[in-house]
Amino acid sequence: MDRLAEHTRYGGIAATFDVAMHPVAFDGLTGWLHLPLAGRGDSVPDTGFILCNSLGREARSAHLPLRRLADRAAHAGYPTLRYDHPGQGEGLDLPPDDDAVPAWLDGVRRAVKQMRRRTGVSRIVVCGLRIGANIAAAASATADGLILLARLFNKNGSDNAARWLALGTTLMALVVAVVLVAGFDQSSAAYQFVENYVWFAGAGY
Length: 205
Hints:
Blueprint: H1 3-9, E1 20-26, E2 29-35, E3 47-52, H2 56-61, H3 63-75, E4 80-83, H4 100-119, E5 123-129, H5 131-138, E6 145-149, H6 161-182
Parallel strand pairs: 3-4, 3-5, 5-6
Antiparallel strand pairs: 1-2, 2-4
């Protein structure tokens, strides 16, 4: 099975780049390993990427963008592995009462080990999307780098939407700062604007 198989399986999505794409299965996880074609880049790549997808509907919606990202990375000379989390997609199902988070974190660590074993790269960067970014960050100790992705706006949104969001949050912070300064009592040396809450009553906190 190669990229032609996935091309057929996912509704005839055209290939973005000419890369070698291989199905992989390891420790109950399944995915695709995108490799540079022979003759592109170094014979032994130095850096590889692991794409840590989101969950549920977000993961299904992100399938094509992440596949194209993997193609681009492999085309540039970086082996890239994308896989399904345990209990998601084609990953093995988890027992209904089990906590899935430890399995997801362990999945990242297993993916890192597989990438090192299959490609021989010396550095691995884990790239997580949305909730996958949280999973990647929590399991990042086994990797050499971390990229966190979160899409904030729709495709048809304004190109300047991110700038407007940054401006809006800055103005909100400015308003809060002005309110605090206006209410600050300069004649008092005590702490101000302090709020106390009981977290654990039995422990005295």
